[in-house]
Specification:
Blueprint lengths: L1 E6 L2 E11 L20 E7 L7 H6 L2 H33 L7
Antiparallel strand pairs: 1-2, 2-3
């Protein structure tokens, strides 16, 4: 996944290189079984507008830029998953026994 964004006002792109889904906490049972879970993680590579690695733009990045880009990527991943679920539901309706009568 590649998104267009800005780092300190410089237009660029970022390529998603790593994504780990959120692991929800497990709080059932005895306290020694509790698992705090883990937050969702993403990592990315900064590219120029031509799609080539841009370490000079990456050096301009502040922690606020990194957080904003991570949130953009997480939102894009969620939107992509929502669209995939909607497409699957639509396909299931088309090919279900009752789809022709709905």
């Amino acid at each position: 996944m590649i998104l267009a964004t800005y780092i300190q006002g410089v237009p660029c792109r970022v390529r998603l290189t790593y994504h780990r889904k959120e692991e929800r906490p497990v709080l059932d049972g005895p306290m020694d079984w509790a698992d705090p879970g883990q937050a969702e993680e993403v990592d990315f590579q900064v590219l120029d507008l031509r799609g080539k690695p841009a370490p000079d733009i990456e050096q301009l990045m502040l922690s606020e830029d990194r957080r904003a880009i991570e949130q953009e990527l997480i939102a894009a991943i969620a939107a992509e998953a929502d669209q995939a679920r909607a497409d699957a539901a639509e396909d299931a309706l088309k090919f279900s026994e009752w789809g022709a009568y709905a």
